């Protein structure tokens, strides 16, 4: 599997790992339409253990119409304290 053809092996591995982390909650819940992009962000923050403060994330959403959105966010210090990872995992397990 490749995300970006030109990416080196290390970058490719990290992209694939983060993609899979971002898909975990969506695979449990299904399509939320607009909410899916935010559920994917929550999933990434919950499962990708190697994210660190200062990193930038690109959040891209493309709808079925002619609309698309691209956000860039920067992870802040102690961001992980505000991610309800265990609560979300427990709620999805019920």
TrEMBL record:
It holds the Pfam family HMG_CoA_synt_C. Keywords: Transferase. GO terms for biological process: acetyl-CoA metabolic process. The keyword Transcription regulation does not apply. InterPro entries: HMG_CoA_synt_C_dom (IPR013746), Thiolase-like (IPR016039). Residues 17-80 form the Hydroxymethylglutaryl-coenzyme A synthase C-terminal domain. One of its GO terms (molecular function) is hydroxymethylglutaryl-CoA synthase activity. This is Hydroxymethylglutaryl-CoA synthase.
């Amino acid at each position: 599997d490749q995300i970006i053809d030109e990416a080196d092996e290390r970058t490719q591995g990290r992209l694939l790992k983060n993609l899979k982390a971002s898909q975990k909650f969506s695979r449990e819940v299904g399509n939320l339409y607009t909410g899916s992009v935010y559920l994917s962000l929550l999933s990434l923050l919950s499962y990708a253990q190697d994210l660190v403060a200062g990193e930038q994330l690109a959040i891209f959403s493309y709808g079925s119409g002619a609309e698309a959105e691209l956000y860039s966010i920067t992870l802040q210090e102690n961001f992980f304290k505000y991610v309800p990872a265990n609560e979300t995992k427990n709620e999805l397990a019920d």
